[in-house]
Structure formats: C-alpha cells, structure tokens
Amino acid sequence: MSNHFPVNRELFDDVMVPNYSPSAVIPVRGQGSRVWDQQEREFIDFAGGIAVNCLGHCHPALVSALKEQGEKIWHLSNVMTNEPALRLAKKLVDNTFAEKVYFANSGAESNEAALKLARRWALDNFGEDKSQIISFKQGFHGRTFFTVTVGGQAAYSDGFGPKPGDIVHVEYNNLAQLKEIISDKTCAVMMEPLQGEGGIVSPTEEFVKGVRELCDQHNALLIFDEVQTGVGRLGTLYAYEGLGVTPDILTTAKALGGGFPIGAMLTTTDIAKHLKIGTHGSTYGGNPLACAVAEAAFDTVNDPAVLNGVKEKEALYKAGLAKINEKYNVFKEVRGKGLLIGAVLTEEYQGKAKDFLTAAMAEGVMTLVAGANVVRFAPSLVIPNEDIEEGLARFERAVATVTNA
C-alpha cells in the first residue's frame, strides 16, 4: 500500500467533514508525556487527549495488553461474552459501589445508556408521569441528541430539530434552584462531580450532599457523569469517593481505556434489572480488545502510589502556575482537583484562552481550554515531575508571548 499524496493539514480540509478545526501540528509518535510531530518537533503533553491518556503514550502495560489480546481474539458479538470483559467488569464492581456493568464505546454512549435506564426504571416503578430529567447549566454529557440536550449548553443542541423532551437545567452549585424544580415527577438528576467542559468547577460539599438528599426525597436516581473525572483523574479511583456521596448510576469512559475507545455504565443490581434482554445494546460494547487494554489501564491506575502521586503532582502544577501568575498576573484563580486543573483568565484576558493554547503549542507544550476563559490541564496521571517542570517553563514563555502581544 503506497500513498501518492501528502498527508498534511491541507488534506484534512479536502477529505474531512468541517466540524473540527485541528492544529497544523500532526503528532506521529509519543512516549510517556512527550510527543513528536511530522517534523520531529517535540512537545510536552499537558492535554492527555482531553483527559484520556491517563498513562501517557505507549505505556508498556497497555502496549503489551494490546499486542497480547491482538494475537488472541478481537471481536465477538454480544451473543457471546468474553474473558477480558468479564475480568474488567469484576474489577469495576469490586472497586466501586456498583454491582452491575454495561459496556459501550464512549462517554456519550455510556451516558445515553444511563439516561435510558433511568427513564425505564421510573416507568417500570412509578408509571409514565415520572420522566423529568434535571441536569446543570454548562454541563457536558456527550454529543448524541439525548445526551447533548441533557448537557447544559443549548448552542450544542440547537439547530437539529425537535429535542428530546422533559429535560430541565438548573445552575450548578445552586441547591435552592434545584429544590424549587425537583419533584416526584423527576426520574433522575445527572451531574458531573466536577464540571469539566463548563470551566473546571468543583461542587461545594453542601451542594453535592444536598443533591443526593433531594434525589432520595423524591425517589429520583442520581447519575454521576464521571467520564472526565473517573479512573484516578482527581486522585481517587472515582470522584464520588472523594465527595462522600454515592450515585445510583455512574458513567466512565475517557481514561478507562487509556486511549483505546471504551465506556461503561455502572449501577446496582436492583436498578440494572430494568434493562432486560432486548432493551438496549451495542455492537462493539465490551469487545475483547478494548476490555483487555482497559483492564491493564485500570490495574495500573488503581494503585495507591499512582493515586497519591496525582495529589502530589496537583500541588506541583498549582505552585508552578501561582509562580507564573506572580510574574504575569493573567489568572484570576487556579481551580480544579487532582490532574484536572483550570487556570481562569483575568478580566483583561477574557475570551483569550485559545491564544494561550496556541502560544503554548508554539513553545512545545500541549494544553487545553475549558470554554473561552479557562486554560485546562489534564496530563497523564504518571507524568514525570521533570516533565511538569519543563512543560511549565515552556508554558511560562507562552504566557510571556501573549502578554507582550
């Protein structure tokens, strides 16, 4: 197979649907927290594929799981089960509140399953009046039509015709507002235990505990979307453990496969029984290749040394960003938890998060944004401390460029 055409950024515009506007940089290989592009330029990865590459690039445990399973069996239909799926499900159940697992391919699909399950559970137990879903403004739950409508940014769901109904949005961290709206007609409340795309916003203790209490009072299920916060990202295996609040349904994806597409919905036996045979499914969900890689990622992350390391690395980042800010005064605050960190821009730099991202790329460090006013960092959970230091030095040069512009 030979290619008689240049594989470059221009080719994207020729052959790809224009819903993305990717960087001109095309990475071709990675090792740990470093990435090299087509021109062999080196970058430090503070983006982690948007909180996906929890063990960096080409981690030996993941590479060996992929190779080993790749020589065995890749795919089976769900007419049969398979060993990697069973092993991974057992580990998820043994290490969380959950008793049952459903596998999908992505966060959106896991959320779709959670929402369908909540509706079915309410219908079976309480009848069709109990169908309201409450979620939060600026929340993000995926791009299927159901999940994007539950997500709290109307701009993402507008313009595709009639939306799924009986979905209401309230402000995150506003317990009084939730109290006003929730009722016995509410079947579920869906929330991120730390808002990711919405700007790296942590819940207050009063809020998250209050949400759980209100759900209990009104027989509504509490769904935690842990697609971005799960698998060690905040320094606990799942974020709910650090909050002292247990959801009824939890969704997980992104870091679950360490870079291989997989998602899962976790719940209790009592709730799970409402997805009986034929009510939901997924062709690839639970396929052996994905589950084998995810098992290796899960085993590697679910280790006290790695999880405690996340908290130590969080402190390094926050200290480093504070030091940069002393010099340049560009951040109003640095917030977030574990290795999901948001640097919020001051009034002077409102709307300019993308400028910082672009300048950072030019200096050889990959970052993210969370909205127009927040620079986001979601690196590998095992990023070496020297890579954090070097990456922050490059980021400081980027900040200098933006402030001098």
UniProtKB/TrEMBL annotation:
GO biological process terms held by the UniProt record = L-arginine biosynthetic process
Q: Which SUPFAM superfamilies match?
A: PLP-dependent transferases
Residues that, per the record, bind N(2)-acetyl-L-ornithine = 143, 282
Q: Which residues bind pyridoxal 5'-phosphate?
A: 107-108, 140, 225-228, 283
Keyword annotations of the record: Amino-acid biosynthesis, Aminotransferase, Arginine biosynthesis, Cytoplasm, Pyridoxal phosphate, Transferase
* Recorded catalytic activity of this chain's protein: N(2)-acetyl-L-ornithine + 2-oxoglutarate = N-acetyl-L-glutamate 5-semialdehyde + L-glutamate
Task: List, alphabetically, the GO terms of the cellular component aspect.
Answer: cytoplasm
- Coarsely, its chief localization is cytoplasm
Enzyme class comes to transferase
* Subcellular location(s) per record: Cytoplasm
So which cofactors does this thing need?
pyridoxal 5'-phosphate
Pfam families given in the database record: Aminotran_3 (PF00202)
Q: Return the PROSITE patterns for the record.
A: AA_TRANSFER_CLASS_3 (PS00600)
Residue ranges spanning the membrane: these are none
Which HAMAP family does the entry link to? Answer: ArgD_aminotrans_3
Q: Which additional comment does the entry carry?
A: May also have succinyldiaminopimelate aminotransferase activity, thus carrying out the corresponding step in lysine biosynthesis.
Subunit: Homodimer.
Give the record's family classification: Belongs to the class-III pyridoxal-phosphate-dependent aminotransferase family. ArgD subfamily.
Q: What protein does this entry describe?
A: Acetylornithine aminotransferase
Its ancestry begins with: Bacteria, Pseudomonadati, Pseudomonadota, Gammaproteobacteria, Alteromonadales
Name of the encoding gene: argD
